[in-house]
Amino acid sequence: MEYSNTKDKGITSWSYYHLGDVEIPEICVYSIENRCQYEKTGCKRLHAKCACHWQMKYDEKWINFRLFQSRELEESFQDPAKNECSITPFDTKMLEPSSRDMFKILGVEMWEANFKLMLIMNDSHSQAYTIRRLSTHSSAISNSAKSTVFEWYFVDKNNKWTKYGDTDSTGNISLTSNVTSNEIEKHFIINGKSLFKFKNADFEYELDFSKMIQRNLKTGKEREVRRRSQKRVPELQLNKKEVEGLPSHWDPMNKSDPMTHVLLTSSQKEYAEVESLLTAEVTNAHIISINRIQSPFLWRPLKNKMEELVLKYGSEQKLNMQKLFHGTKSDIVDKICKENFDWRLHGTSTGQLYGRGTYFSNSAAYSHNYSHSDSSGSRFMMVARVLVGYTVKGDSSMTRPPTNPTTGMLYDTTVDDEINPKIFVKYDKQEYYPEYIIEYTTNLQN
């Protein structure tokens, strides 16, 4: 996929793109639920699947942090006592294609974010980079359920951060302010350039938003003030399919059906996303159809394996789940849908240079070479959801991955190149799922 700049006409920028310049530095509230009417023509705001995302400025352009980096920054930012955050370095063995441009900038080193200066810094780099947080509208001026709630804090006599309207850590009720955090937020949004005055039983104060300080008008004592986003409580909205352990976007199925194909229409966003995976590299591909494969009996083993490895690795990010390609013949497609990929049953046309397992690729062009035309000229490309995890270079003698000295467990996947892999070899059917079938034609020869 080409991660385009939103200054190009008609391009809507998503938080998972590399470039994140937007005309209006906010999160589009409608993008969270795929309801933005301007997505196809070019929305002026950043699109994301959550209410905030962090960016850094590099070479005069705003760059989107990867999702795991943005989450780390946000989690620390929500704690008023924290003014710094360490950003987890990239793991080169688990580097997704969409992360490579950011990896070129940050490398494998640890970077520190400073929320007061809004900079990220590194001891070995003389240059610091500006960062910013994009979010949906403040709840002080928006009634949307996806708006961002901001809370205001001051540091009290015991150096504890106290939210305005609450009693501070001394327990002295007379020092409780007569304004709430929400009232301060409303003034900040509407008229943040002016001073905001309030009082408690003993003193009068003013808030200087330009300096982010609270000043006692009688004693002159100044205290630091912080505006932080409220920690959002996860919403429990599990539908029946999610309770049963199935993806929420699947169409309803009869319990008697072990597997079904759902034909996607070209008007669906899901169709466009899958189509772009192929046509980004196979530019002369003409899509005939895209089908979603719904097989509860193949999906649940993958989900169980994911939950098992999250417990072992301690992080969902370390699963390194990717959408990979597998070109195949028309007479094998149905067997894959029913049985999953299995080179022992379906054979292999790629050899076994990197291990005796099932082969996938992150290159559509590479996998295209193995999607042989049938009698009508149609080709078939499978798009699989693959649990890549930790990788190591494979060889033809491997019947399973070797032991990873870091985790003490087997590597999850063998690859052709540890730094820039194109080929991924899997040995356990629980670690991949055939998600889509793309039927297409091209002008290329077999």
Automatic annotation (TrEMBL):
CDD domains: TCCD_inducible_PARP_like (cd01439). InterPro entries: ARTD-AVP, Poly(ADP-ribose)pol_cat_dom, WWE_dom, WWE_dom_sf. This is Poly [ADP-ribose] polymerase. The keyword Glycosyltransferase applies. Belongs to the ARTD/PARP family. Its EC number is 2.4.2.-. Keywords: Glycosyltransferase, NAD, Nucleus, Transferase. Pfam families: PARP (PF00644), WWE (PF02825). It is found in: Nucleus. Residues 138-227 form the WWE domain. It comes from the Eukaryota. Transmembrane segments: none annotated. The keyword GTP-binding does not apply. One of its GO terms (molecular function) is NAD+ poly-ADP-ribosyltransferase activity. It comes from Meganyctiphanes norvegica. One of its GO terms (cellular component) is nucleus. It is an enzyme of class 2 (transferase). Residues 246-446 form the PARP catalytic domain.
